[in-house]
Amino acid sequence: MPIPKLRQWLGIELIEVSITEKAVSAFGGGLAILTLIAISTYALPAGGAAALITSMGASAVLLFGVPHGQLSQPWPVIAGHGISALIGVTCAQCIPHPAIAAACAVGLAIGAMQQLKCIHPPGGATAFTAVMGGSAIHQLGFSFVLFPVLTNALVMVLLAVLINYAFHWRRYPNAFHHPAQKPSAPQDESLPTHEEIIAAIRSLDSFVDISEDDLLRLLELLKSHPGKIR
Which of 45, 110, 210, 228 has its CA 20 to 30 A from that of 134? Predict the structure, then answer.
């Protein structure tokens, strides 16, 4: 199998980012986890913090490694974790068999996140943790949803906003643009409209992790520099 085909089959990302971008991602993710470890250890002193931090670590990868991705935006992060935690606690209390409870929690969390447009993969880990995380988490009951889960999610989003703001090429959340990035000219009328973009994406019948703004930006680059982008 040719190397390009093998890379495509394996799903290896073809886009290279700068050392600076990688350093910002690493610093932001590390700082966020350090903060959340303090919060989670306070909420779960008996040792349940480690299980919860696992799902939050996955969120840190998305918020600081892929800040422009749809899965990384505030609503998926906050609602994805919160709804998944609520479902997880409910399953833990209503289903006596742990394995079945965990399976139901993760499955229902995926369905709920899709329905409520807040798909955030670490939410599945949060639902699983609510069932299998041990007695320290079970003792919190539904308060586990508010503190530490939602508290952690809110703190991580706030840190992502503050840290990414310092770097002009990183927009977080996606709706935010630095003044220098605002378009100075009207949008090219030959570009697709919002309705056309939504219709095209829906026709795929699959989740696409790219924002409308980034899609339009790519189209503008391709139109303004045909054959010259390297």
Answer: 110
